[in-house]
């Protein structure tokens, strides 16, 4: 017995990855529906070895369906999420709409799977922001051992985080630099992204930080521990897939770098590649397409009493979005919606 599962936003970067990962992980599917907006209606999408023709989200009745993976942004979820939930279909939403709602669990299964039981209040579960997901996978096992006081993180986020338009802009702008007459001005991003970096993701807030940086603070507190202080600088870089993060951690207690490496080696969802030699670390091009959260450059921060530095890389479309959503569905199936 499997589940009747819906992927909402099946033609976008994350929606397509959700379908790929459901198939790769052989999620128990009895029936699957791929939904899209009217403008993408009829588009064919792959689900393992089969091809699905997208159906109209606006006309779709969620009654009788078990789980809906939403990847259509906050506005779309606002319009269709509640009606899916009300029809008895558990919504796993990749947008930020419900992440900070006290009645909606924000879940990274390797970190806080137990919180999933709170889904029944609204029949909705929130998926964290991509840059948060990989970071909390790395932080949680270390927090359990030496209690984290403060995190300082700088992110190097790929253009796929800004959707297909972001990827197209990097591609066309880069080409345009070499092909006379094909120059491309900034459009999706505020400044040139080809051969450049942009310290601005999402809207600016009153205090000078951006919404992306605020998300990392608020979501880390909700997922792991509200006592943890987090400060972030989120930067867009000319990489197609894979977010990287330089993470500095201050603990309550001293944690030796070797012990930290051993802990991370055993941590769920983590792959440690950490050799102090040429190539002894992971880069986005190696992480893209993989399920793991990769950790490298683990080393003491001797400028503070209990400090540690590390480098964290993961596929932002997978662990950062689609994989985490599918893992939430797996956890929901295993713990709550058990099917014989
Ligand atoms: C980004 N985290 O990278 C945001 C949304 N995916 O653009």
From TrEMBL:
Where do the TM regions start and end?
none
Could you list this entry's UniProt keywords, alphabetically sorted. Answer: Amino-acid biosynthesis, Diaminopimelate biosynthesis, Lysine biosynthesis, Methionine biosynthesis, NADP, Oxidoreductase, Threonine biosynthesis
Q: Which Gene3D superfamilies does the UniProt record give?
A: Dihydrodipicolinate Reductase, domain 2 (3.30.360.10), NAD(P)-binding Rossmann-like Domain (3.40.50.720)
Q: Which residues bind phosphate?
A: 99
Q: Where is the active site?
A: 130, 243
Q: Which reaction does it catalyse?
A: L-aspartate 4-semialdehyde + phosphate + NADP(+) = 4-phospho-L-aspartate + NADPH + H(+)
Lineage: superkingdom = Bacteria
**Any idea which positions bind substrate?**
157, 236
InterPro entries named among the record's database cross-references: Asp_semialdehyde_DH, Asp_semialdehyde_DH_beta, NAD(P)-bd_dom_sf, Semialdehyde_DH_NAD-bd, Semialdhyde_DH_dimer_dom
Domain Semialdehyde dehydrogenase NAD-binding, first and last residues per copy: 4-119
Q: Does the keyword Oxidoreductase apply?
A: yes
- Stored Pfam families: Semialdhyde_dh, Semialdhyde_dhC
Q: Any idea which GO molecular function terms this record carries?
A: aspartate-semialdehyde dehydrogenase activity; NAD binding; NADP binding; protein dimerization activity
Could you tell me which SUPFAM superfamilies the record lists for this protein?
Answer: Glyceraldehyde-3-phosphate dehydrogenase-like, C-terminal domain, NAD(P)-binding Rossmann-fold domains
Q: Where does NADP(+) bind?
A: 11-14, 39-40, 160-161, 316
A GO biological-process term: diaminopimelate biosynthetic process
Q: Which HAMAP family match?
A: ASADH
Job description of the protein: Catalyzes the NADPH-dependent formation of L-aspartate-semialdehyde (L-ASA) by the reductive dephosphorylation of L-aspartyl-4-phosphate.
Q: How does it assemble?
A: Homodimer.
Q: Can you say what this protein is called?
A: Aspartate-semialdehyde dehydrogenase
Q: Which organism is it from?
A: Litoreibacter roseus
């Amino acid at each position: 017995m499997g589940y009747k599962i819906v992927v909402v936003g099946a033609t976008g970067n994350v929606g397509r990855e959700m379908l790929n990962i459901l198939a790769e992980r052989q999620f128990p599917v009895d029936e699957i529906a791929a939904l899209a907006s009217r403008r993408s209606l009829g588009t064919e999408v792959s689900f393992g070895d089969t091809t699905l023709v997208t159906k109209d989200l606006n006309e779709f009745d969620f009654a009788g369906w078990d789980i809906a993976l939403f990847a259509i942004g906050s506005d779309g979820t606002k319009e269709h999420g509640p009606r899916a939930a009300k029809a008895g279909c558990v919504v796993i939403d990749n947008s930020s709409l419900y992440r900070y709602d006290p009645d909606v669990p924000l879940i990274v299964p390797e970190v806080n799977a137990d919180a999933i039981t709170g889904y029944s209040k609204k029949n909705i579960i929130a998926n964290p922001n991509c840059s948060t997901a990989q970071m909390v996978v790395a932080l949680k096992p270390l927090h359990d051992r030496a209690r984290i006081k403060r995190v300082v993180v700088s992110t190097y986020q790929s253009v796929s985080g800004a959707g297909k338009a972001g990827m197209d802009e990097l591609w066309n702008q880069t080409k345009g630099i070499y092909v006379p007459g094909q120059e491309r001005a900034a459009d999706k991003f505020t400044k040139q992204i080809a051969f450049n970096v942009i310290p601005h993701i999402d809207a600016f807030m009153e205090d000078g930080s951006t919404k992306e940086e605020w998300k990392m603070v608020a979501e880390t507190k909700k997922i792991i521990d509200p006592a943890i202080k987090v400060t972030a600088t989120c930067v867009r870089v000319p990489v197609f897939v894979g977010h990287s993060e330089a993470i500095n951690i201050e603990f309550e207690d001293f944690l030796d770098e070797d012990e930290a490496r051993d802990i991370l080696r055993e941590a769920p969802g983590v792959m440690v590649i950490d050799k102090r030699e040429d190539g002894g670390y992971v880069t986005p091009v190696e992480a893209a397409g993989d399920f793991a959260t990769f950790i490298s450059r683990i080393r003491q921060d001797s400028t503070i009493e209990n400090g540690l530095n590390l480098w964290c890389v993961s596929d932002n479309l997978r662990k950062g979005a689609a994989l985490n959503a599918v893992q939430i569905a797996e956890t929901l199936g295993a713990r709550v919606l058990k099917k014989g």
